[in-house]
Here is the input.
Amino acid sequence: MARRLPQRRDMRILALLVLLLGLPCVQANAQEADAPEGAVIDSVEMSGFSPYSLSPGLQKELDSLVDTPLNRERLNQIAARIEGEQPEVVAAVRAVPRPDGKAHVVFLVARISDDTDLSENINARYVVESVEIEGPAGEVSQQLRDDLQKLVGKRLDTEEADRLKDRLESELRGRDVARRISKGSEAGRIRVVFEIVQEPWIRFAPTRSKLVYHAEQGWSGVLDFPMSSSRSRHRFTAGVVFNDIDELIEEYSGFRLGFESRMIGTEKLGVRLDFGRFNETWEDATLSALALTPGIPEPYRNRLTFEPTVTFAFSPSVRLSGGVSLSDMESLAHAPDSQKANAWVAGISADHTWRAADGDARQSLNASYGLRAAVDGLDSDLFYKRHLGQAGYRYEQGHSEAIGSISLGYISGQPPLFERFSLGNSTTLRGFDKYDIAPIGGERMFHSSIEYRYYHVGVFFDTGSVWDRDADAKIRYSTGFGIQGPNFFLTLGFPLNGDDASPIFTTGVRF
Amino acid sequence: MIPAVRAASLWQAGLLILMLLVSPPGLAAQTLSVNAAGDALRVQARNFNLLEGTVLTRLKEGRSVRVDFELTVLSKPEGPVVKQTVQGFTLSFDLWEERFAVSRAGSPPRSISHLRAADAENWCLENLTMSISSLGIGRDTPFWLRLVYRVQDLAPVTEDPGDRYTLRALIDRLSRRREEADLEKSVSGGPFRLP
Here is the structure.
């Protein structure tokens, strides 16, 4: 046997340095300065690790290499077996050419914990095949792009890669840079990607997907399919609505299509187009109340809506939007007669999230105001102005969350039924049924809610009223408790001043 | 016209089943157990998974993840604290070997690779020890344990555009928890007695 055991400490250190400096000795990168394939192996050495720590079978395998033709696939398999038996080390192999044409095989073994880079990320053992910038690479200086390319051909130096990431963030102020790695084109090689992430100034509308059960109102289902990547400028959404009775006074089913672009030439300008076609059904309570309340626009069997809007962002937190909402409603009683409710829409919204200095507590605040005005010039049959202001605050620390929200609504003129306010569903005045409070909704609305959650178990207190211009507001209170998970909720709400003191159970998922 | 009170129907039952299926996981019981190795108190946790969700996505993107494990011994279920220890670990995922690597921070540093997910989690717990003699409690004295992990410095993960159209992506989306939920988890148990 020609194997030489590492007797001297300096030999081990030298071998370790060779490995750690990323000389071409990594498994898949052993071709350039190595002995040719097929050269006869005259000796085998293991450096940085005692071969006697290996299993007898593996020791025998090492011994059997001598006097056999060099086969890199076999050598790499043995290196992998060394790592398999000794998971605290990494192993690489090099075949050194001898003057007589034979090969000297060295297994370079290093403890992961001795190498900061490997301890930080085990992929630092691999050679960088390419470095890419994902995002606006044109905004990165040529010098920095050149420096990024210097990572190529060497073992991944995580410290240097982090320094380059910091330089990218420094050049691209206001943007985060994330570094990720993926497999290269051949074994033992990796691709490094610096991904420039920026909080978009204009965000896509949150999906409305839900499956909600309300003990008095039954099931509501909405399934939205947004189609885009998280970094895409544009998104197309196709949605299906199954008997949604949770949102409006009407119960509606149908489909909606939406297109959003959050960057029209500039990241400050976006556009959104929403189209929907719905079939409506009405609760008996609503129809009875309508029969007794003249002056309210009639119910409809179908509703067709088209709403193009443009959004301008003053900053990533403050946005202004405007457009039109065109609705055509086919009469329930006099089909195919229909009414149009065409309105200008405008809104402003702001949100902000900040963390405490220790990073433990997080607070977020959002506020919005929206106006929908059906006035002369849009060929509308109904004329009205609808104002809605909303604000919410959330404080999170550890497993605790405190949430507060308030909404105020006001309508003047003759709004269609889908514009009227209602309270008493799975999110407002929990514990009430909207058809007991106001079966045809109302033109004025006030609602507030405070909630405390601990480990997703929460208690809440809702207050609100919905009424018409000529009626008195009756403020209702409800409280309750339940589970409020990230997607799942299950609550039991108790009306505190309702005609019926029975609690109302709601559950569902929103995603 | 829809009657105010709906009779139960098959499709409603189907929807309820679907809702239960897509409701967040975590109903599986997380349980703690303790054992001793010499003077070291060790803890084992069942269904206390770290390598899933956001953390797993990040690791499979070749990034490393720093995690602090905190073990607290309590004299009662909600305290007071008898002793607490915190140990930091750095995890990464070998892209070519498709195995996890873990490094223990501190002195002496220890590292290991070629681990499957469950083995990597167990290795962290094996290296989260507490001296029994330092607890100052008798063998007949009951105590409670709280085990917490906190993922540090986690940047947002990206989503593969191609995955948005697949059934798997839809299922993932339906069952997705908030990312933050993956970043910290705790489990408590007791009463225990020193082994």
Q: What stands out?
A: Residues 1-8, 22-27, 155-168, 174-179 of chain B have pLDDT under 50 and may be disordered. Chain B touches chain A through 50 residues (CB under 8 Å). Residues 10-22 of chain B form the longest helix (13 residues). The longest strand of chain B covers residues 81-94.
